[in-house]
Write a structure and sequence with these properties.
Helix content of chain A: 25-40%
Order of helices and strands of chain B: EHEEEHEHEHEEEEHEHEHEHEH
CATH topology of the largest domain in chain A: D-amino Acid Aminotransferase, Chain A, domain 1
CATH class of the largest domain in chain A: Alpha Beta
CATH superfamily of the largest domain in chain A: ATP-grasp fold, B domain
Distance between the termini of chain B: 15 Å
Largest sheet of chain A: 8 strands, mixed
Structural class of chain B: alpha/beta
Number of domains of chain A: 3
Strand content of chain B: 15-25%
Shape of chain B: globular
Oligomer: heterodimer
Chain lengths: 389, 294
């Protein structure tokens, strides 16, 4: 579950972390009026936009006066926003104004977990962009400090970070508690990811957060039901994707023509590899998970039948946890209700395979296959025919 | 032979109350696994479908000498259940539950370091030593006894590839489903260490996927410590990078290695890599014949 910058900063503020006050400019034609209404003389300008509901920020621009700020707004809007780790230029929808504070240092700070070591990790970087292979290496401009779960947070962790940032003793004393708070919040809210930056170390030796966002572990939502209303996951999903999401189905749309319905990410990814290696492309990746009930399978197929991008549906189920005949019943129920205009190719294997095949055999809406390579060859041929004819 | 499970394995089921647990417990027994008991708090002393029930895991362990526990608890109870297994010193815990909270797993990982138990999962499909013993939810009939040790993150991918191996008459020593979660009890290294020592295993097949660092870690380990031939496939190399899919912890996708990167590291570490899933069985077969492994 993803949270917006504003909500994340509110949470930090409530927990005693200093956060820069901000004002959002949405109508760029009113820039002059807006800027004149602000307190202060110098500003940090942060270009901001939404890409499929995800927040994107551009580089921070410093304006030294109100006149300068008005000029810079124009420049920012014309130049558009370059998203992090992407070449894409996005139109700026908002500019966040913060009153510039005098600062000694600026840095970027993330907390996440390292799955293979099962530790919480602080990543501190002097640059906005993180190096790609940062986990196993330390560099001049970034440092990784792991926190052992059993030992918990200890002061040396903060000291290690502070000395890396060349803070003086006065600043370190004040910062230790801040770093502890970050770790405590990470645990308390079952976070997967807490990302902050730019973070300023002010002239008064205080850590002040400018940008922040966080992601909560989906599996722990039941412990934080009061936070649910703030989650923004809906915003980044298309309508059908959201309908699927609510039913615990992972539904991701792509630009191709084949819709894949699978019960497990691994097999789904392998199918995509296979289809794309053979020259096809996918329109939707739909994963109901290995423990999916009959109803969830039915729902997933009904949603796919509504998706107009899909030219052919490939259903590939290899069942262990759930019995194949239950899955087959779910598929048939979905097919009975809905109008079917596109070819549907089904491959079903695993526990109770024989009764499942009995149920599906003779259904005129589907084509059954046994072998994976054969079915993929058939699909690609079918799609080709369709696009030609 | 094979690793972790064999004819002498004694299995108990934790949380036999659900119909799913009952179905799979019966299924394991039909495959030949020695099911010696089950734990349902409050029903101790009764017998369900021929299986004696105990109130606590330590009581079950004392009375049955169980060597492996198959866990079917709901995600909120998994932390408690695994802690109880650790206290009872069950040597091997196989957890099939999906959706276990991340921070519960982080906590468990640090406890497991000093425990006498080994955890497989969560969201594992289980382990099978074909022809001898199966503890988990996999369809037993697709497996065949033999000499390839298979370890996979994803369960469904494991079935798909193993069924192809069996069709080509390539048997397996043991197959392990690690589970696709972000934090898992045992990783590739824990398993291939055992395969290296196992007499029946002549070749190791690793099925990885996008997300996490496990594949990178095991690649470096193989280079240093593994003498047996290894074949690796990483699912998701053809996936567009900027979108997240499924359960693979893809959300933090700027912070993880892509499938392509993992394959590169495997190649650098002298592992035989396969890029398309339909070529895996072929590659394994070729290696077996070229090196005269069997």
């Amino acid at each position: 579950m993803r949270f917006l910058e504003s909500d994340t900063k509110q949470l930090l503020k409530e927990n005693g972390i200093k956060v820069l006050d901000y004002y959002t400019l949405k109508n760029f034609d009113n820039a002059r009026e807006f800027v004149n209404g602000l307190q202060g003389e110098r500003f940090f300008l942060r270009p901001h936009t939404y890409e499929r509901g995800k927040e994107r920020f551009g580089e921070v621009v410093i304006a030294s006066s109100k006149e300068d700020a008005i000029d810079k707004v124009k420049v920012i809007v014309e130049e558009k926003l370059t998203a992090l780790l992407s070449e894409k230029k996005l139109p700026v929808t908002e500019i966040i104004f913060e009153e510039a504070i005098p600062y000694k240092k600026v840095f970027y700070l993330s907390l996440f977990f390292d799955g293979s070591k099962a530790k919480t990790v602080f990543l501190i970087s002097k640059r906005r962009l993180m190096p790609k292979d940062f986990i196993n290496q330390e560099g001049d401009d970034h440092i990784v400090v792991a926190v052992d779960f059993a030992a918990g947070f200890s002061q040396f962790i903060a000291r290690k970070i502070c000395f890396f940032l060349d803070m003086d003793n006065e600043a370190i004393k004040k910062a230790i508690n801040n770093f502890k708070t970050f770790y405590v919040l990470f645990l308390k809210f079952d976070l997967k990811f807490l990302n902050m930056g730019p973070v300023y170390l002010s002239e008064e030796n205080e850590i002040v957060i400018s940008g922040a966002h966080m992601i909560m572990d989906q599996n722990s939502v039941y412990r934080h039901l009061d936070m649910l209303k703030l989650a923004t996951d809906k915003d980044e999903l298309q309508d059908l994707e959201w309908e699927a999401y609510r039913n615990d189905i992972s539904y991701v749309m792509f630009d191709g023509d084949i819709g894949c319905l699978v019960n497990g990410t691994g097999i789904g990814l392998a199918l995509v590899d296979l289809i794309r290696h053979k020259g096809g492309d996918i329109a939707a990746f739909v994963d109901v998970g290995g423990a999916a009930s009959k109803d969830r399978v039915k729902k997933a197929l009904s949603i796919m039948l509504k998706d107009k991008h899909i030219k052919l549906i490939f259903i590939n189920f290899f069942n262990g946890m759930v019995k194949s005949d239950e899955i087959a019943e779910g598929l048939i129920e979905a097919l009975d209700v809905d109008e079917v205009e596109i070819p549907i190719v089904v491959r079903i294997d695993g526990i109770n395979k024989v009764p499942a095949l009995k149920l599906l055999a003779g259904n005129s809406k589907i084509t059954l296959f046994d072998d994976l390579s054969e079915s993929v060859a058939y699909i690609l041929e079918k799609v080709k025919q369709k696009s030609e004819g | 032979m094979g690793i972790l499970l064999d004819r002498n394995t004694r299995m108990i089921t934790i949380g036999l109350n659900s119909s799913l647990a009952q179905f799979h417990t019966t299924n394991c027994r039909e495959y030949g696994t020695n099911v010696v008991g089950a734990v349902i708090p409050g029903l101790g002393g009764t017998i369900k479908e021929g299986v004696p029930i105990f109130n606590t895991i330590s009581h079950a362990k004392r009375n049955t000498l169980a060597s492996v526990a198959m866990m079917f608890l709901p995600p909120q109870l998994v932390l408690d259940g695994i802690l109880e297994c650790i206290e009872a010193e069950i040597p091997l815990i196989i957890c099939t539950t999906t959706g276990v909270p991340l921070h519960d797993m982080l906590k468990l990982k640090s406890i497991l370091l000093n425990a006498k138990s080994q955890l497989i999962g969560p969201s594992s499909v289980g382990i099978i030593t074909p022809g001898e013993c199966k503890v988990g939810v996999m369809p037993g009939f697709i497996f065949m006894p033999g000499n390839v040790g298979v370890v996979s993150r994803s369960g469904s991918l494991l079935y798909e590839i193993v069924s192809e191996l069996t069709k080509q008459e390539i048997g397996q020593s043991t197959c392990v489903g690690l589970g696709g979660d972000n934090v898992i009890g045992s990783d590739f290294i824990d398993i291939i260490k055992l395969f290296e020592k196992d007499y029946a295993t002549k070749l190791i097949l690793i099925l990885g996927e996008i997300g996490g660092n496990y594949e990178i870690d095991v690649a470096h380990y193989i280079k240093k410590y593994i003498s047996k031939p290894v074949v690796a496939y990483v699912a998701g190399s053809m996936m567009p990078r900027d979108r997240q899919v499924g359960h693979s912890g893809m959300e933090i996708n700027t912070l993880i290695h892509s499938a392509e990167k993992k394959l590169e590291v495997f190649e650098e570490c002298a592992v035989n890599i396969v890029r398309s899933p339909d070529k895996i069985a072929q590659k394994v077969k070729k290696l077996i014949y070229d090196k005269e492994l069997i």
